[in-house]
Specification:
Length: about 80
């Protein structure tokens, strides 16, 4: 899982890769896992950009967390 910088909440086990650094780190990502991308909140557009980049680059199964991090942490 990846997220943008300046977050107020974090999903346990997530790895922080700001979208502006994603291109240079994309080759180190695993292709046999789904990746959930999130950032500051449901209206943050950086996560949309990151998902598009991941899907185009290696065909990675990338998904945007549609809700907030707090919603994820309730599971």
């Amino acid at each position: 899982m990846f997220f943008a910088k300046n977050l107020t909440a974090v999903i346990p086990g997530a790895v922080s890769i700001p979208v502006e650094e994603l291109r240079e780190k994309i080759s180190s990502l695993l292709t046999n896992r789904d990746i959930v991308v999130y950032c500051r909140g449901p209206y943050c557009l950086m996560s949309v950009e990151a998902v598009e980049l991941l899907r185009r680059s290696k065909g990675i199964n990338a998904y945007r967390l549609e809700k907030s991090v707090q919603d994820w942490n309730e599971f």
